[in-house]
Amino acid sequence: MEEKPAIRSFKNLIVYNNSYQAMLTVYKEIIPRLPRTEEYDLKSQISRSVKAIPRLIAEGHSKRHQNKGFQKYIDDALAESNETIVSLNQVRDLYNDLVNTKICNDLIDDYDKISRQLYKLALAWDRFNKRNRQTYNVSSYVTD
Questions:
Q1: Is 10 domain-assigned?
Q2: What is the DSSP string of 69-89?
Q3: Is 87 part of a structural domain of the chain?
Protein backbone atom coordinates (compact mmCIF):
# COMPACT_ATOMS: atom_id res chain seq x y z
CA MET A 1 0.00 0.00 0.00
CA GLU A 2 1.32 3.41 -0.98
CA GLU A 3 2.06 5.67 1.96
CA LYS A 4 0.32 9.02 1.81
CA PRO A 5 2.31 12.16 2.60
CA ALA A 6 1.64 13.83 5.94
CA ILE A 7 -0.82 16.71 5.93
CA ARG A 8 1.21 19.53 7.39
CA SER A 9 -0.70 22.35 5.72
CA PHE A 10 -3.97 22.92 3.90
CA LYS A 11 -1.82 22.97 0.76
CA ASN A 12 -1.26 19.22 1.24
CA LEU A 13 -5.00 18.53 0.87
CA ILE A 14 -5.85 17.27 -2.61
CA VAL A 15 -9.30 18.83 -2.39
CA TYR A 16 -7.73 22.24 -1.69
CA ASN A 17 -5.50 21.96 -4.76
CA ASN A 18 -8.36 20.72 -6.95
CA SER A 19 -10.64 23.55 -5.86
CA TYR A 20 -7.92 26.15 -6.34
CA GLN A 21 -7.14 24.95 -9.87
CA ALA A 22 -10.84 24.82 -10.78
CA MET A 23 -11.26 28.37 -9.44
CA LEU A 24 -8.48 29.58 -11.73
CA THR A 25 -10.16 27.95 -14.73
CA VAL A 26 -13.51 29.55 -13.89
CA TYR A 27 -11.82 32.95 -13.63
CA LYS A 28 -9.94 32.54 -16.91
CA GLU A 29 -12.49 30.70 -19.05
CA ILE A 30 -16.00 31.40 -17.76
CA ILE A 31 -16.35 34.71 -15.94
CA PRO A 32 -14.83 36.93 -18.68
CA ARG A 33 -17.28 35.50 -21.22
CA LEU A 34 -20.45 36.26 -19.28
CA PRO A 35 -22.49 39.24 -20.47
CA ARG A 36 -22.53 42.59 -18.63
CA THR A 37 -26.15 41.96 -17.69
CA GLU A 38 -24.91 39.24 -15.32
CA GLU A 39 -22.40 41.55 -13.60
CA TYR A 40 -24.34 41.73 -10.32
CA ASP A 41 -26.03 38.35 -10.49
CA LEU A 42 -24.57 35.16 -11.94
CA LYS A 43 -21.08 36.58 -12.51
CA SER A 44 -20.89 37.93 -8.98
CA GLN A 45 -22.33 34.76 -7.44
CA ILE A 46 -20.04 32.35 -9.23
CA SER A 47 -17.04 34.56 -8.45
CA ARG A 48 -17.81 34.45 -4.74
CA SER A 49 -18.57 30.72 -4.57
CA VAL A 50 -15.48 29.50 -6.45
CA LYS A 51 -13.17 31.69 -4.36
CA ALA A 52 -14.87 30.64 -1.12
CA ILE A 53 -14.13 26.92 -1.45
CA PRO A 54 -10.31 26.97 -1.14
CA ARG A 55 -10.55 29.79 1.41
CA LEU A 56 -12.90 27.78 3.62
CA ILE A 57 -10.67 24.71 3.40
CA ALA A 58 -7.62 26.77 4.39
CA GLU A 59 -9.41 28.56 7.21
CA GLY A 60 -10.94 25.36 8.50
CA HIS A 61 -7.58 23.62 8.51
CA SER A 62 -6.24 26.30 10.83
CA LYS A 63 -9.08 25.51 13.26
CA ARG A 64 -8.71 21.73 13.13
CA HIS A 65 -7.74 21.66 16.82
CA GLN A 66 -11.26 22.80 17.73
CA ASN A 67 -13.86 20.12 18.31
CA LYS A 68 -16.14 21.13 15.45
CA GLY A 69 -14.04 23.91 13.87
CA PHE A 70 -12.74 22.11 10.81
CA GLN A 71 -16.01 20.26 10.27
CA LYS A 72 -18.03 23.48 9.99
CA TYR A 73 -15.70 24.92 7.36
CA ILE A 74 -15.68 21.72 5.32
CA ASP A 75 -19.50 21.66 5.43
CA ASP A 76 -19.57 25.29 4.25
CA ALA A 77 -17.07 24.53 1.47
CA LEU A 78 -19.29 21.63 0.35
CA ALA A 79 -22.30 23.95 0.20
CA GLU A 80 -20.31 26.46 -1.89
CA SER A 81 -19.13 23.69 -4.21
CA ASN A 82 -22.70 22.50 -4.79
CA GLU A 83 -23.78 26.09 -5.38
CA THR A 84 -20.99 26.41 -7.95
CA ILE A 85 -22.29 23.34 -9.78
CA VAL A 86 -25.73 24.93 -10.08
CA SER A 87 -24.21 28.22 -11.26
CA LEU A 88 -22.10 26.44 -13.90
CA ASN A 89 -25.18 24.56 -15.11
CA GLN A 90 -26.96 27.91 -15.45
CA VAL A 91 -24.01 29.40 -17.33
CA ARG A 92 -23.88 26.45 -19.70
CA ASP A 93 -27.63 26.40 -20.34
CA LEU A 94 -28.19 30.17 -20.58
CA TYR A 95 -24.98 31.23 -22.36
CA ASN A 96 -23.87 28.25 -24.42
CA ASP A 97 -23.26 30.66 -27.29
CA LEU A 98 -20.73 32.63 -25.17
CA VAL A 99 -18.88 29.96 -23.20
CA ASN A 100 -17.15 26.77 -24.21
CA THR A 101 -19.66 24.07 -23.30
CA LYS A 102 -16.94 21.41 -22.96
CA ILE A 103 -14.99 23.52 -20.46
CA CYS A 104 -18.21 24.19 -18.59
CA ASN A 105 -19.07 20.48 -18.46
CA ASP A 106 -15.51 19.64 -17.37
CA LEU A 107 -15.79 22.20 -14.56
CA ILE A 108 -19.15 20.79 -13.48
CA ASP A 109 -17.48 17.36 -13.28
CA ASP A 110 -14.53 18.88 -11.37
CA TYR A 111 -16.81 20.52 -8.81
CA ASP A 112 -18.85 17.33 -8.48
CA LYS A 113 -15.60 15.53 -7.64
CA ILE A 114 -14.64 18.34 -5.22
CA SER A 115 -18.02 18.00 -3.50
CA ARG A 116 -17.49 14.26 -3.10
CA GLN A 117 -13.96 14.83 -1.78
CA LEU A 118 -15.26 17.35 0.75
CA TYR A 119 -17.98 14.96 1.85
CA LYS A 120 -15.46 12.14 2.33
CA LEU A 121 -13.10 14.49 4.16
CA ALA A 122 -15.94 15.50 6.49
CA LEU A 123 -16.73 11.85 7.23
CA ALA A 124 -13.07 10.99 7.79
CA TRP A 125 -12.61 14.00 10.05
CA ASP A 126 -15.67 13.05 12.08
CA ARG A 127 -14.36 9.47 12.53
CA PHE A 128 -10.93 10.84 13.47
CA ASN A 129 -12.44 13.17 16.09
CA LYS A 130 -14.61 10.40 17.59
CA ARG A 131 -11.62 8.08 17.82
CA ASN A 132 -9.52 10.77 19.51
CA ARG A 133 -12.28 11.66 21.98
CA GLN A 134 -12.60 8.00 22.97
CA THR A 135 -8.86 7.68 23.68
CA TYR A 136 -8.57 11.00 25.49
CA ASN A 137 -8.27 10.38 29.21
CA VAL A 138 -8.48 13.48 31.37
CA SER A 139 -7.18 11.71 34.48
CA SER A 140 -3.80 11.14 32.84
CA TYR A 141 -3.30 14.92 32.74
CA VAL A 142 -4.22 15.56 36.36
CA THR A 143 -1.40 15.62 38.88
CA ASP A 144 -1.74 14.98 42.59
A1: no
A2: HHHHHHHHHHHHHHHHHHHHH
A3: yes
